[in-house]
């Protein structure tokens, strides 16, 4: 079932699972539990269920569906397409869907620290401001903000606006700074090669009468700045599903999980293929990483701002 159909019919009229139920795997969901492509690991599901039930009990959530993400899984499937590691679970309707989602790219601070992530498997995680890292933990979806990014040339000719919706996340624990970090979910779309095109009558024009023009880039299956990025189609359905109906997102792994795997503790979970690829994961907490980022800024002040160039004449 497509994402739009799966979610669109579920936002209204279905009661969420009872808040006092112990986390369990109903028979219909069992086939989706495991470590194969498109499946959810048992530990990730159990924590996502527990978070959802807790938030229902608190009255913070009434959405019939909840989300989970396993950022230890590969970003690329065996067939070369985007790996499916973000999960939409609607227990009342007995539906489950696994879709692609990006992980934080991290950064390289020359001479200080390197916490970059490859495109396929994430090794580094953290919650520091401007780290561009993914922070695991408990989240609830909050308000949705639409942002105009500029215009792009459509395949059939003409200019179209890119308006990207952003779902703010509210986090707990290590993820409690999600709002100041501007961590949330959005479509994996951006504009590259920006220039200024004169159009003084456009409502988006600046004081000089110019609008931004760029090339549309779909980076589904790529990395992000720490946010959760989805394909344009999936993003449209997910944004609609949480509008006026917040829900929970449990994002794995948390700092304690990373530490357990790094120390080889029995029973610790990590996707086997990615663990072979990265060797050992690392968590970069705000307290340790923030001073390094601040030092890097002092050592590398940004150059004076340069105006965006004018677009070439068509």
Automatic annotation (TrEMBL):
Residues 1-19 form the signal peptide. The keyword Signal applies. It comes from the Bacteria. Keywords: Signal. This is YkuD domain-containing protein.
């Amino acid at each position: 079932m497509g994402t739009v159909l799966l979610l669109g019919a579920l936002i209204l009229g279905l009661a969420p699972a009872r808040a006092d139920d112990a986390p369990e795997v109903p028979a219909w969901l069992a086939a989706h539990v495991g470590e194969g492509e498109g499946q959810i690991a048992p530990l990730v599901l159990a924590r996502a269920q527990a978070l959802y039930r807790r938030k229902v009990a608190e009255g913070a959530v009434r959405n019939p569906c909840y989300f989970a993400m396993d950022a230890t899984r590969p970003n690329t499937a065996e067939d070369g397409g985007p790996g499916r590691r973000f999960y939409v679970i609607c227990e009342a309707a007995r539906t489950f869907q696994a879709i692609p989602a990006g992980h934080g790219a991290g950064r390289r601070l020359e001479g200080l620290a390197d916490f970059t992530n490859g495109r396929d498997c994430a090794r580094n995680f953290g919650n520091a401001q401007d780290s561009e890292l993914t922070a695991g933990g408990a989240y609830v979806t909050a308000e949705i903000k639409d942002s105009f990014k500029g215009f792009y040339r459509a395949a059939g000719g003409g200019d179209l606006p890119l308006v990207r919706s952003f779902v703010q996340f509210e986090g707990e624990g290590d993820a409690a700074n999600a709002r100041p970090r501007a961590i949330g979910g959005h479509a994996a779309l951006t504009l590259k090669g920006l220039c200024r095109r004169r159009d003084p009558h456009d409502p988006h024009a600046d004081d000089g009468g110019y609008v931004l023009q760029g090339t549309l880039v779909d980076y589904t299956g790529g990395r992000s700045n720490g946010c959760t990025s989805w394909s344009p189609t999936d993003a449209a359905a997910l944004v609609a599903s949480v509008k006026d109906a917040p829900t929970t997102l449990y994002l794995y792994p948390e700092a304690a999980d990373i530490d357990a795997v790094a120390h080889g503790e029995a029973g610790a979970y990590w996707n086997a293929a990615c663990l072979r690829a990265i060797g050992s994961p690392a968590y970069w907490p705000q307290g340790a990483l923030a001073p390094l980022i601040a030092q890097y800024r002092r050592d590398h002040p940004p150059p004076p701002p340069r105006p965006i160039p004018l677009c070439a004449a068509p």
